[in-house]
Amino acid sequence: MRYFIVLLILIPTVDIGILLLSGKTIGVLPTIAFIILTGVIGAYLAKKEGLQTIRKAQEQLSYGQIPGEAVLDGICILVGGTLLITPGFITDILGFLMLFPITRKLFKVVMKKSFRKWINRGNIKIIK
Question: What is the reported pLDDT for 1?
Answer without folding.
Answer: 66
